Amino acid sequence: MEIKARAPGKIILAGEHAVVHGSTAVAASFDLFTLCSLRFHSDSENDDTLNLSLKSVGLEFSWSVGRIRETLSHLGGPFLSTPTSCSTEAVRCIAALVEEQNFPEAKIGLATGVSAFLWLYTSIQGFKPATVVVTSDLPVGAGLGSSAAFCVSLTATLLAYSDSVSLDKNQQGWLAYGDSDLDLLNKWAFEGEKIIHGKPSGLDNTVSTYGNIIKFRSGNLTHIKSNMPLKMLVTNTNVGRNTKALVASVSERTLRHPDAMSSVFNAVDFISKELSSLIESPTPDDLSMTEKEERLQELMEMNQGLLQCMGVSHASIETVLRTTLKYKLPSKLTGAGGGGCVLTLLPALLSGTIVDKVTTELESCGFQCLVAGIGGKGVEICFGESS
Ligand SMILES: Nc1ncnc2c1ncn2[C@@H]1O[C@H](COP(=O)(O)OP(=O)(O)O)[C@@H](O)[C@H]1O
Ligand SMILES: C[C@@](O)(CCOP(=O)(O)O)CC(=O)O
Ligand SMILES: [Mg+2]
């Protein structure tokens, strides 16, 4: 039997990086998905391999289950209902399994994703032969949380076959996990993110798991109900970068300037809190919709200034900021920065002509503009035919 899971990407409205250092962040799911399918091999197939096909990045891997068992069985597990961190020893053993696959040098940045796969698969399912196929609409390494969507969709398929979760396997179409099962899934996905990111806050996997719009601080989430239409233009600079390196660079700057950086993180905390109250406040309240949008734009612009202080902006991001500002539309980077994606709020009454003009100008610079719904459902699973 085949099982599929799909998990959304995310945009961060405020608080990236600072959230790693304990500040509040506000994020929403973004309706581009990573899809993972899992099929265990039956005895009659006589196929004793674990195959991983990463379609969107054009990579295929195959290990004999015996080889995986020989390399990893001394680590204990499966751990299933006890999400467990990948120890230094496990990282070393898994790296050996990845290296044996002659990973193409040009794509070596993707090796952490394969390591996360091996850790999650063997920790949850042990040493069973299977084929796992991953496809994605999300650009990889662009700030839209592809790493989290990868870990969440993979974990969702792995847990679906376990007794630790309760799912009606006869139900047709896409279905959601129950709340306590989502908590387990989210914890496992976080363990995968740790392998990819080094020191993640847990924000991205949490948004991909639960969906909607959330306020997040130190591992705790609060669901937010927006009272304003949040139409966002997402511009991909197409400048590749790596979240792990950017998160590490902010930590290094924090070590060099602890007091200054603590004030920066504190300011971001206030921005995120104000932003979440603003979008939740009823309209019309004291403020009209236009005034609310202007405040939101201002908060995003202030957050961008603080991200520049953290050293995670980039020339390509600055070009997007200058271009959208010509149309009186402030923007901020979203995700880890250093390239990747930029977020621009499109006010509800903004004319379609302006949106077309700004999009055309951004695309003429070689950037790619994406518009997708935000705040939709989190991870879902499908046992039968998916629609
Ligand atoms: N569809 C995918 N297939 C393979 N690996 C993926 C996929 N999506 C994400 N990854 C993993 O996540 C990494 C990118 O994560 P990251 O640098 O955090 O950027 P982001 O999460 O913003 O896309 C990749 O290098 C790879 O290891
Ligand atoms: C920079 C950070 O706040 C978000 C990273 O998002 P992404 O991997 O760039 O999509 C890191 C984190 O919260 O773990
Ligand atoms: Mg990521």
UniProtKB/TrEMBL annotation:
Pathway(s): Isoprenoid biosynthesis; isopentenyl diphosphate biosynthesis via mevalonate pathway; isopentenyl diphosphate from (R)-mevalonate: step 1/3
Subcellular localization(s) per the UniProt record: Cytoplasm
Any one cellular-component term (Gene Ontology): cytosol
EC number, as in UniProt: 2.7.1.36
Keywords for this protein: ATP-binding, Cytoplasm, Kinase, Lipid biosynthesis, Lipid metabolism, Magnesium, Metal-binding, Nucleotide-binding, Steroid biosynthesis, Steroid metabolism, Sterol biosynthesis, Sterol metabolism, Transferase
Stored Pfam families: GHMP_kinases_C, GHMP_kinases_N
Highest rank taxon of the organism: Eukaryota
Occurrences of domain GHMP kinase C-terminal (ranges): 294-346
Similarity field: Belongs to the GHMP kinase family. Mevalonate kinase subfamily.
PANTHER family: MEVALONATE KINASE (PTHR43290)
Descriptive protein name: Mevalonate kinase
Organism of provenance: Pistacia terebinthus subsp. palaestina
